[in-house]
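SAMPLE LOG
Freezer: B-3
Tube label: C17
Construct: single chain, 59 aa
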Amino acid sequence: MATSVLYLVPGVPLINGVIDVVEGYVLTGFARLTEASLLIVSIAIGLSFTLLMVKNSLI
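STRUCTURE (predicted):
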């Protein structure tokens, strides 16, 4: 159960994307960087909606 959350950590696709671009695999690198940026945006939107929903109950 703990390892299933690792897919939500954008660090690994970011590092692999940069390494791929540096090594010359530009298409694969940009695909991984796009995946990581979509993960970051999704996490930010989810946290924002959660804070909007429970803003009054945090105090």
